[in-house]
Design brief:
Elements: H1 15-24, H2 33-46, E1 50-54, H3 57-67, E2 75-79, H4 84-91, E3 96-100, H5 114-117, E4 122-128, H6 137-147, E5 150-154, E6 162-163, E7 166-167, E8 174-178, E9 191-195, H7 201-208, H8 214-218, H9 238-248, H10 251-269, E10 295-297, H11 301-313, H12 341-349, E11 350-352, H13 361-377
Parallel strand pairs: 2-3, 2-4, 4-5, 5-8
Antiparallel strand pairs: 1-9, 6-7, 8-9, 10-11
Helix pairs in contact: 1-9, 2-9, 3-4, 10-13
This protein binds pyridoxal-5'-phosphate.
Residues 56-58, 82-83, 85-86, 128, 154, 156-157, 178, 180, 191 line the site of pyridoxal-5'-phosphate.
Modified residues (N6-(pyridoxal phosphate)lysine): 183
Pfam families: DegT_DnrJ_EryC1
InterPro entries: DegT/StrS_aminotransferase, PyrdxlP-dep_Trfase, PyrdxlP-dep_Trfase_major, PyrdxlP-dep_Trfase_small, WecE-like
């Protein structure tokens, strides 16, 4: 029995060639040849005012918090059903987190609840496009604009996904992408800050370069560089960007394969699961599907636990996802006590199936058959 992992990093083709080329160029620190190619790719393909590679999505989110000058007493609204980094980036600057619930039928932040969470101290709303499916951005933007609050997109999972034809990561003032080995295009660890409000560009370059104006210096705009602001080391080695660029130039092929895998799951599972009280992902009319993830929502926790065990017994690694942050060991005592039932339901019931570029059709079929056999026997 061969095992099927949940995720598997892959080489699309030219990754190692480009890494060798980066080394041969004589410069593998930040902002080398391939980093610039990655920046141009994102700016040209998605129209971001500025794209800056970072060492991770987590770092790009930390840059967002620095760029907004988040400080003690500021409030930031974040969905509870997300990765810790969406929240940590702002906690590090002393913000008070106000957790929002998910929609009933998908894990994205419930735009209908935002108004009630805004106070005069609210500075930002962080939206997370879960599974690469867009949040309800027009409603979120309208509320944010009316209250003078900045929208930040955690677009970690959202490469090449769209909201009413607009690329995700191109809507909020600032956005963060991830190229962690579990995302659609990978670099091991890596991220991107996408700047859509050009007022942030100059300072973003400085914060990313340890608080110095080295980027202006390299462009010949100043004749020496020095310490001009706070900052840290947020720029990745060109080796990371070399790996990433080999994937980016094949993004359409990668996306086509992922979408075919997603569709194959859907075609076999959609007719099978409803009778067991298991639901499949919903994609709202305003969103596209970038096939980042294929997930199921089980009826309850015992059903999910049994399904994970049944798959594991057949060598198939399916995994649950986030545990509500408002209820985490770190935050539990700080939370204001509001129940967030949808977030808790996704924490207990959501199950992700294996999804990676090299997953074969026969693997997908075997996973679906295993699910079917387990459910009909239980
Ligand atoms: C993967 C992920 C992150 C973190 O990305 P890193 O590049 O590992 O820092 C943040 N937010 C969400 C929603 C993610 O899925």
């Amino acid at each position: 029995m061969t095992t099927i992992p949940f995720n598997k990093p892959y080489l699309h083709g030219r990754e190692l060639v480009y890494i060798a080329q980066a080394v041969a160029s004589g410069k593998i620190s930040g902002d080398g040849l391939f980093t610039k190619k990655c920046h141009s790719f994102f700016e040209e393909r998605y129209g971001f005012a500025k794209a800056l590679m970072t060492t991770s999505c987590t770092d790009a989110l930390e840059m967002c918090a620095l760029l907004l000058d988040i400080k003690e007493g500021d409030e930031v609204i974040v969905p509870s059903f997300t990765f810790v980094s969406s929240a940590n980036a702002f906690v590090l600057r002393g913000a008070k987190l106000v957790f929002a619930d998910s929609e009933a039928d998908n894990p994205n932040i419930d735009a209908g609840q935002l108004e009630a969470l805004i106070t005069p101290r609210t500075r930002a709303i962080v939206v997370v496009h879960y599974a690469g499916v867009a949040c309800d951005m027009d409603r979120i933007d309208e509320i944010a604009r009316r209250h003078g609050v900045t929208v930040i997109e955690d677009a970690a999972q959202a490469i090449d996904a769209f909201y009413k034809g607009r690329p995700l990561g191109g809507i909020g003032a600032l956005s963060a992408f991830s190229f962690h080995e579990t995302k659609n295009v990978i670099a091991g660890e890596g991220g991107l800050l996408a700047i859509n409000d050009a007022r942030y560009t100059g300072r973003a370059e400085i914060i990313r370069e340890k608080g110095t104006n080295r980027s202006s210096f390299f462009r010949g705009e100043v004749d020496k560089y020095g310490w001009v602001d706070v900052g840290s080391s947020f720029l990745p080695s060109d080796i990371i960007s070399a790996y990433l660029f080999a994937q980016l130039e094949n993004l359409d092929t990668i996306q086509a394969r992922r979408k075919a895998i997603w569709q194959r799951y859907w075609d076999q599972l959609a007719p099978m699961l409803p009778e067991y009280g298991i639901t499949l992902p919903t994609i709202p009319d305003y969103a596209t599907n970038n096939a980042h993830m294929f997930y199921l929502v089980c009826r309850d926790l015992p059903q999910r636990t049994a399904l994970i065990a049944a798959l594991k017994a057949q060598g198939i690694h399916a995994v649950f996802h986030y545990l509500s942050l408002h209820d985490s060991p770190y935050f539990q005592q700080k939370h204001d006590g509001r129940p967030l039932p949808n977030s808790d339901r996704f924490s207990n019931c959501l199950l992700r199936l294996p999804m990676f570029y090299e997953l074969s059709d026969s693997d997908v079929d075997r996973i679906c058959e295993t699910i079917g056999a387990h459910l009909s026997a239980s």
